[in-house]
Amino acid sequence: MGKELVKVGLVGAGTIGKGVVDLYRRNINLINNRIDFELSLEKVADRDQSRLQALGLDEKKLTTEAADVLDDPQIEVVIELIGGIEPARSFIARALENGKHVVTANKDMMAHHGWDLISLAREKNLNIFYEASVGGGIPLIRPLKHNLVADRVRRVLGIVNGTTNYIFTRMDRDDLSLEDALSEAQRLGFAEADPTNDVEGLDAAYKLVIMANLVFGKKAVFDQVHIEGIKGVTYEDISYAREIGYTIKLLAIGEELPEGLALRVHPALVPLEHPLASVRNELNAVFIECEAAKELMFYGPGAGPMPTAAAILSDVVEAGRCIRFNIANGVVERELQDTGFVPVGALEARFYLRFLVEDRAGVFASLANAFADEGVSLDMIIQKRRVGDLAEVVLVTHQVKEEAFHRALNKVTDISAIQPNPSIIRLLN
Length: 429
Ligand code: HSE
Fold this sequence. Notes:
Layout: E1 5-11, H1 15-34, E2 38-45, H2 49-53, E3 62-63, H3 67-70, E4 77-80, H4 88-97, E5 101-104, H5 107-123, E6 128-129, H6 141-147, E7 153-159, H7 162-174, H8 178-187, H9 196-199, H10 202-216, E8 226-227, H11 235-243, E9 246-257, E10 260-271, E11 283-290, E12 294-301, H12 305-325, E13 348-358, H13 363-373, E14 378-387, E15 390-397, E16 400-401, H14 402-414, E17 423-427
Parallel strand pairs: 1-2, 1-4, 2-3, 4-5, 5-6, 8-10, 10-17
Antiparallel strand pairs: 7-9, 7-11, 9-10, 11-12, 13-15, 13-16, 13-17, 14-15
Helix pairs in contact: 1-12, 4-5, 5-10, 7-8, 13-14
């Protein structure tokens, strides 16, 4: 008896869509030899004819109408790669209504509507697979979903944005300014022409919401993520951080506290001995702290057509297994619970600060007094070279409640001898 055929359709033939078709053509025999059913890519839809023509597929498989894939009764798995929220969300809902499993790499849509779509999928005894939505080619979603089902995750720390990691790496290694490092990232194709979502931390926040849903089994909400981008970090900060044994990374941090979930994305000083400090250039990593397995790190390329295509095709195989063996494959997604959220002000952190101050007697004392008045204890104080008539002061606090720190900071910035807009970066603790 021949192997059961699972027919697949693709909507979206952009960079990642083309990567999926390329990898499919290169490896479909290998894949089909490894599984006990047979995958067949039947149709690809894109509104842009030239993108379709570039795929090198048989004309009969190409269409400019998404409906030709979404409504084709023979297609059992739809890959959605158009990105953005609409019409991607409606397309996925329509594919599910039509009884198809869905594979997507769409992080913003999954962060905003993932749970509703997963619920719809479950009602229909179907599933949505989104391995490529976080960490590109890194096997991450499936290990979080399946391998950690018996464990309790305490905290997730992610370097999940390649653009910003590349920028910080170049600032650190080659003494570039943020602007020059960003231009380099764009020139080399690591950053998009409009890198706003990356630089402002939104892309990392989407990915954090997706991971938090999964590892905590709670309904993480995008609007509850505290988000700070990388714009405030200068070459000087990176250089001082290195001097005191740290490197700066944009971290996506999710933790489960007794009061609820604390979700944040911000630059952080990471100790050089922490495994995340070694994640450089455009690479991504997710460090998981859990009860039984202790510490795990998933590392690799977080973007790019080939790594992402490998993740997508592995999801297609998973969908095929669900069809072939009539399994739901849900695990933790089954019952996400409502949760409270802990605002960043209620958390504790250590802070790095860099100020410019007038270089005269008493300024340092007034700075130290302002912190002491709010009970903020200082761990490290460095006074550095003059910039004109100004001295540069770098401080690191001990662990402090964010609210107390900000009260002290308001007092400090009221001191006329201290220049406004200090650099403020949390330390990873
Ligand atoms: N623009 C993202 C990054 C890749 O720089 O990591 C896709 O999420």
